[in-house]
């Protein structure tokens, strides 16, 4: 018979999917707040643990919020409600809402963040890690895959934009718009560190986020793949639906009744754009 899950049981299933041992040494993943014995009926998935997401969780009467980004990545000595993050903690605890983070352990999972990104922008068939994990080559950062048929860089960028959530500045593209694209690498979140891996993989294009001017310029000059730079939040958002579905399925297999939902709150940091005037 179905029974009500506890937070401890729910966390156990999340960590089966996204083992905390897979996280980078500098990362902060796991349970941030919450009573392990408390019941969990509703779980909200979001990219960022910010006030707007917490308000959405309260309105939906969620018992647990699972975010990709940590609340306290570098630790803290205070959770005073006078601070932005402290207010988040106070609000969650006062309303008996737990917070759990799956960050770099979800990045390298199989499937993980980049698998969802790859599917969102139209890659099909088998996906392989762009930078495999040392202890398990099936896992790792980024993914490499192929489009069903070749298309121009311009067409692929348009397809990717249509597959990702809308943001103020959309996508930035570096490369010949008429260049043929078939083999593509993607990486959710900041992908500067994977530029070399993308070149070595022999892909036609690399889609990621937070690319900086100098590395991108040097990469283009060296004849690397075309680059597509999306908003950080947008490249990680597709993972939420997959994570929510996988948790719901895992809990149902245990006889637990848990409802999951993907946050509708846009937490991209950039809210609008403005074009500079031509002074020539």
TrEMBL record:
NCBIfam families: YbgI_SA1388 (TIGR00486). InterPro entries: DUF34/NIF3, DUF34/NIF3_sf. Homohexamer. One of its GO terms (molecular function) is metal ion binding. Belongs to the GTP cyclohydrolase I type 2/NIF3 family. It comes from the Bacteria. A divalent metal cation binds at residues 68-69, 107, 232, 236. One of its GO terms (cellular component) is cytoplasm. This is GTP cyclohydrolase 1 type 2 homolog. The keyword Metal-binding applies. Keywords: Metal-binding.
């Amino acid at each position: 018979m179905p029974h009500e899950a506890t937070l401890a049981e729910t966390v156990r299933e999340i960590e089966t999917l996204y083992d905390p041992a897979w996280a980078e040494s500098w990362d902060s993943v796991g349970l941030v707040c919450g009573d392990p014995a408390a019941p969990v009926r509703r779980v909200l998935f979001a990219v960022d643990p910010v006030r707007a997401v917490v308000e959405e969780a309260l309105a939906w009467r969620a018992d647990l919020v699972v975010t990709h980004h940590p609340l306290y990545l570098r630790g803290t000595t205070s959770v005073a409600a006078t601070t932005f993050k402290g207010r988040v903690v106070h609000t969650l605890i006062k309303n008996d809402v737990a917070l759990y983070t799956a960050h770099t352990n979800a990045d390298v999972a199989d499937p993980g963040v980049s698998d969802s990104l790859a599917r969102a922008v139209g890659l099909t068939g088998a996906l392989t890690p762009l930078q495999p994990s040392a202890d398990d080559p099936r896992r790792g950062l980024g993914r490499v895959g192929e489009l069903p048929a070749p298309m121009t860089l311009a067409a692929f960028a348009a397809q990717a934009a249509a597959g990702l959530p809308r943001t103020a500045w959309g996508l930035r593209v570096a490369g010949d718009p008429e260049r043929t694209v078939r083999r593509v690498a993607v990486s959710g979140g900041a992908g500067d560190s994977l530029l070399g891996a993308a070149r070595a993989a022999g892909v036609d294009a690399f889609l990621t986020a937070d690319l900086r001017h100098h590395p991108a310029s040097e990469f283009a000059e060296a004849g690397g793949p075309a680059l597509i730079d999306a908003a950080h939040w947008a490249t990680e958002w597709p993972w939420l639906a997959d994570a929510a579905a996988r948790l719901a399925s895992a809990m149902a297999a245990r006889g637990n009744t848990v409802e999951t939902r993907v946050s509708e709150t846009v937490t991209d940091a950039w809210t609008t754009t403005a074009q500079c005037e031509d002074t020539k």
